[in-house]
Each structure stands twice: as C-alpha cells, then as structure tokens.
Amino acid sequence: MQLPIWTNTATLDGFIDGITTTAAPGDAQVALIGSKPLPLDEMPALRGIFRCGVGTDNIPFETCQARGIEVCLPSEGTVDIIHAETANFAVQRVLEMLYRDLGDVESWIKAPRPFLGTRRVLVVGTGKIGSQVAAKLNGLVEVVTYDAATNAPDDLALLLPTVDCVTLHVPLNDQTRGWVDAAWLSQLKDGAALVNTARGHVVDEAALLTEIESGRLVAAFDVYWQEPYHGPLRAFHPDHFLMSPHVASTCSTFLERLADDFRAFLNTLSSQGVPA
Question: Who contacts 237 (Cβ-Cβ below 8 Å, separation ≥6)?
Fold first, then answer.
C-alpha cells in the first residue's frame, strides 16, 4: 500500500512519478510541504514531513519530536544548489533594479545612468546565501554588508542612507518578523531599491506600500506575505514592485535532486516500518 501524501506545494509537480497525494490532512502519513503553514493538528496519522526548501519557520520541531514525526530537509548537495541559485537570482534582481531606467525604445530616448561601479549595495545577512551574493556582486558594485551576529546595531543606521540597493538574506524568526518597518525604510535615500528573496514577513507590508505608493522607493520581491500574492502591492508590478512567483532556487537541477531526496525519505520511512 502506498503512503498517503498530503502536500501544500507544487514544487515537485512533474518531478515525482507514481505517488498519490490526498487532499484530506487527516488521512496523510507524509506531508510534502513548501513555505505555507502546516495544519499539524489536523493530521493525527502523520509519520513524516519533507520540506521542499531550507526555511524551517513553518515546522514545529518540538511537536514533531513529541509525536514521533520524522522531519526531513533537503540533502547537503541539494542545499548547495539552493544556496547558489538563490544567490544568483538575487544578484540578477539587484542588477535589474540598478539598471531599471534605461530610456524608451519608441522615442529612442536614452536615459543617462551612473556607472555601475559607483553604485553601493547593502547585503543584509551574510550566511550561506548572503555571503555568496556579496562575493558575486563584488567587482561589479561597491558592496557593504550587515549581519546582526557580527555588526553593532548602530552600523545599520549608518549604512542605510548611503546605499542604492538593499538585498535581504535573513531568516524569519521572532526578531526579524516585521523588522523592515516604516522607520527602517525611511532611512533609505530617495530612489533606493529593496530586493527580498528571503521571507515576505521580514518586511512590514503596509510600510513598504506607503513607500511604493509615494514613488520614493522601488522593490523586487520573490517572497510574500501570502502566496500566491494578491495584496495591494501587486498593483505596482512591474514598474515599482517587481514580482516573481517564489522561484529564486527553482532551477531544474535543484528540483531533480529534491525529488531524489524525497524518494529516499519515503524509502527511509518504509524501512522503519511504515507501509509504502
């Protein structure tokens, strides 16, 4: 008998053959999840959780341990791909923000712009992804970094008014939820850009909306407060709020390796006595 699998993500659609998913959480023995909430209280038969990504803010580890639910994250090789491709994508978004005003094709008007080498980019969070972003941007722009683990809190206030673009690479936790608020954003200079490939909830949505509505800031987001995102900022896509559908890590190599990891997890559950 095949394991009943409940999922709240389309990440592996087309990459896993021969599995059956169930829409009923109460019947599921395995949960294949993305970044959306997990209704664990509705899943009495659950034996395993597989997370399609590196974020773990939606996994209640203590509850899982108490209930004997196995939690599986992507393998080390898959995580390396996630980190590298997310960094690549963030760099692309930063460059797109810095090159956003090129002129007009219809009138053939060419907009003058500053030399890229004089632009200043702040990388916030220098972990596995942020450190790669800083290294990849180095040599193209002037890179400055901030990380709460290594910088004094006052350092951020000194940096924000000096940069042309900020790219966020921090986890979502109690300290970072809503951290980028109205006061934080107000320190950025007029015309600055905010890139977010981390978590939507790190940024205060209403505060960002105020800045985008005023035309003072622009932003490029790959992550949101609800997904799919249909909130008020969507009205400003693509000129002032550039959107992508949470695809920073979604290259085919990552998906193929993730599918292999999930198959291995199902085999592990089977070897532990769970029918597969």
Answer: 243
Strands 218-221 and 193-196: parallel
**Pair of tokens at residue 191:** 């015309």
Neighbours of 13 (CB within 10 A): 10
pLDDT tens, residue by residue, 17-54: 766 677 789 989 999 999 889 999 999 999 999 999 88
Q: What is the spatial distance between Cα 96 and Cα 220, in angstroms, rounded to a whole number?
A: 9
The first and second tokens of residue 71, run together, are 């939690």
Stated length of the chain: 276
pTM beyond 0.70: the answer is yes
The alpha carbon torsion through 114, 118, 120, 121 (nearest 10 deg) reads 80
CB-CB contact of 242 with 93 (8 Å): yes
- Does residue 106 carry a catalytic annotation? no
Which of the residues 227, 237, 256, 263 is marked catalytic?
227
pLDDT tens digits for range 46-102: 999 999 988 899 999 999 999 999 999 999 999 999 999 999 999 999 999 999 999
Which one from 47, 51, 93, 199 is the annotated catalytic residue? 199
Q: How far apart, in whole angstroms, are the C-alpha atoms of residue 190 and residue 222?
A: 22
- Dig out the tokens for 130 from the structure: 């942020």
The Cα–Cα gap between 136 and 83 comes to: 13
Identify residue 144 by its one-letter amino acid code. V
Catalytic residue among 93, 240, 246, 257: 246
Can you give the pLDDT at residue 73? 96
Residue 246 bears catalytic tag? yes
Token pair in block for residue 141: 């722009």
Token pair 């999922």: residue: 7
Closest to 232 in 3D by CA, of 218, 246, 213, 215: 213
